[in-house]
Amino acid sequence: MRDTVLAALAARNPSAALDAAGQWVEAEPRLADAHWALAQARSAAGDGEGALAALDTAIALAPDRGDLIAARAWLDLGARRLDAAKAGFDAALAQDPNQLGAYIPAAHLALARGDLEEAERLVGYARRVDDGHPHVLLLEGLVADTRGDEARALPLFNAAVQRAPEDALVLSTYALALLRRGHEAFAEQALRKAVGLGATAGLRGLLVGLLARQGRAPEAHAEGRDWAATEPASLPAQWALAQAAAGVGAVDEALAAIAVLRAAQPRHLPFFAFELRLRHAVDPAAAIDWLDAECDRDPTWTELWRSRIDATPDGGLDAVVDRWRAAAPAEPIAMEFAAQLAERAGRHAEADALAAQALALEPALPEAPLLRARHAVQHVPAEALTRIVGLLTAAVNEPQRRGLEAWRAVALDAAGRYEEAIGSWRRAWSEGAPLGVPAPRPAAASEARPGSEGGQGWLVWGPPGSRVERLNGVLAYALPQRLLIDRWRQPWRDDGFNLMRVAPDHPDAGSAERWRDALLRHGFPVGEAIDALPHWDGWTHATLHGTRLLVALRDPRDLLLNWMAWGSSVGLAFPGPGPAAAWLRTVLEQLIEAESAEPDRIVRIDADLFDHDPATLAVRLGESLGLSDAPDLSVVEPLGRGRHGGRADFAPGAWRRYAAGELAPVFAHLEPVAVRLGYPAR
Length: 682
Hints:
The structure is a single chain. The protein is an all-alpha fold. The protein is 63% helix and 3% strand. It has helices at residues 2-10, 14-27, 32-44, 48-61, 66-78, 82-95, 100-113, 116-130, 134-146, 150-163, 168-180, 184-196, 201-213, 217-230, 235-247, 251-264, 269-282, 284-297, 302-310, 317-327, 332-344, 348-361, 368-379, 381-394, 398-414, 418-430, 468-478, 512-521, 538-543, 556-566, 577-597, 609-612, 614-625, 664-676, and strands at residues 458-461, 483-484, 530-532, 548-553, 602-606. It has a five-stranded parallel β-sheet with strand order 2-3-1-4-5, with helices on one face. The longest helix is centred in the last third of the chain and has 21 residues, at 577-597. The protein is elongated, with a radius of gyration of 33 Å.
């Protein structure tokens, strides 16, 4: 009977195994092995609960059998009942210290928990039982790999494969180790063999992804299609097919696979986002119609409305948010959006009331408390500090508290309590994770290795606090076909001059050749480029030596104060007054050096003129860029006003309010470079 059950299981015929095991149990109901065989057959047929029941009967008949206790723990492990599985393996080892089938999974569980010492202890015991067992060798390799001992890990994986060349677990672990080391061709061979032996769905998906990553989209598609045909009810298979089909342009097939996925999990965000991207790539207008239909079908799912808002130009936002609120009148996120729109439109009392209503329903909203703080600062300044303290008391998460601290600092500044304001700003930028990305190190011109060609056209840049985004906004309106602003959204133009750039001596560092090639690949005339950069320094200037720079500047001390208070338009974290002053001084000194050496390559724009003399600034811009007409500066907000209609900047010379206090040493550090740029010393 045992052989008949095992043969049926080996042939992957669970029905035959169930019949044989059932006959065995009926013939010998008091035999533990018969019930164990029934458990194996039920497990193969997908009946996990029935398998557990059969094993419990087997254990009741033979309570001293460690192998049965271990087998039950395996079932718990397969059902992700990890605590029960660990307890079962421990019980099996207590019953039989030589139970290799318990040491191995117990060690795997210890590794999964990150308990490396426990894993090593269990592997040591397993080696005493059978030091040449392939699964023991595999575990030794995993422990070595986890410890970073690659020189020892790979030979152990190799030895395990030699001992068990037809073991799917051994092969799949070996394949993953090869992938981590970049040996993709060998990893593919091992994965294919493991898949053929019935490896897990995750590994088959890994194989599809590996083929796609190697640029073998048709093979990835074929593999995904075969998997989905074999297991049409498998969501991982349909997901792999959807991605692989999209990779070869088979849009209808990809959408059909996504339809299966979304029928099973209609609110699974990755499935929805993939379908939206796919539809938008084919026909943006039709994608909007589809998204509208989705919003009507499931009007209470917030992510649908967020996507609809993201796809809507500013002028159409009110209509979309009105539809959302009509469909889901009690949705606090919709109220928050409506409050922001009312604020932008100047309906400030309405905005404040909507924000308060939204917060009452959902205290964790990100923007509503900040809107209420802004409203108080701008429209009821006498009550601003009291309101902001109340909002801080009610804040439920770190982002809320940090944003509110920044607005408390603005309110304290308005009240003339400057040292207290610095304390609030310090809490905003120093408590918790950094707000933004670290500023790249300003590399000097001497670190560049310029080629014979250095680019053409213009670069646009401004240090933090310069409000260079206003300059970019004017250029986007005046020269929409020439301005490149693709460094602020994915996919970035990958030429080495992005915000997250590497050091100049890195192989992936930017070069003039890469800069030019990226433009040409996009069909952009190099000489026409006006490239808005997130960062500039002497190295950039020397590397792209054929370009000119349009730079937005202000008094360096105002730059520092505005960076601390209002952040950076490109998302640079404020590192503290001292480090920020040192960074600004270094990069501005490099600018002065570059201007002294090649004055015709650098055009300074005084950003303060946006508010104080826009006519002069417009003429300066038009002449510098060779425009027939001066650009219209009214298309952008004044420096001191944010998109929300409230304060977003300090007036020129605001730094002097802080010159006698805690910031005096950092302003003194910036004074020499400020004077060299033409600003007064005091």
